[in-house]
Amino acid sequence: MNYRVDGPTDHAGGGPFAADTDGEMAVADGAAEATPVEKESETTLRARLSPFSGQTAGSDTVQITVYVVTGYHGKLRVPESFCRECHLFTRRAQQAIQQVDGDVSLSVRSWWTHLPWALRHGGYHPPVMVVGGRRLCQGHDVPTTEAVVEAIERAQN
Questions:
Q1: Cα torsion at 82, 88, 89, 94 (round to 10°)?
Q2: How far are the Cα atoms of 64, 115, 136, 146, 154 from residue 133, in angstroms, in the given order?
Q3: What is the number of other CB atoms lying within 10 angstroms of the CB of residue 105?
Q4: Residues in the chain with pLDDT values less than 70
Q5: Contacts by 112-120 with C-beta closer than 8 Å and gap 24+?
Q6: Neighbour order of strands in the sheet with 128-131
Q7: Exposure pattern of 9-22 as b/e (b: 16+ CB <10 Å)?
Q8: Tens digit of pLDDT for each residue in 85-121?
Q9: How far apart (Å, rounded) are the C-alpha atoms in residues 90 and 74?
Q10: CA–CA separation, 6 vs 112, rounded Å?
Q11: pLDDT in the model for residue 33
Q12: CA distances in angstroms from 66 to 6, 22, 25, 31, 100, listed in the order given
């Protein structure tokens, strides 16, 4: 399994979550203990702002794109309470990637600056998850990990 994340990642390389300003990381879900840096209930997303930045996936790589409205969008920080589903969408995508064999790339993008791309896939209500070029879900319809795994397998075939 090859797992790439497009965008800023945590120190372990496990996902698009932001480091605190002190350089320490908050502990993700399922960790044994929390660090004093963790000020919120969840770690904070960091979304890509530029529509033309990031790596291009290979032809055999399945691309998962999650368009979010919370987290850091450049210097602007939108709190998680604005949209809790954004974090759930990203976590479900990461969990599904860990269960699938093959090349899968996860990209977390700002819905605010990538609106035309989200609309192209029918994603008018954030957050939006696109797997292999097809919209899987959007809005309050949080996917299960199994649904994301099935969508990845469909995109691989």
A1: 140
A2: 8, 15, 9, 18, 11
A3: 20
A4: 1-43, 52-58
A5: 112/69, 112/73, 113/49, 113/50, 113/51, 113/73, 114/51, 114/67, 117/51, 117/65, 117/67, 118/67
A6: 2-6, 103-110, 62-68, 128-131, 134-138
A7: bbeeeebbbbbeee
A8: 999 999 999 999 999 988 999 999 999 899 999 999 9
A9: 18
A10: 18
A11: 37
A12: 11, 27, 22, 24, 18
Per-residue pLDDT, 25: 31
What pLDDT score does 17 carry?
53
The answer regarding whether domain 2-19+42-50+58-156 maps to CATH 3.40.30.10 reads yes
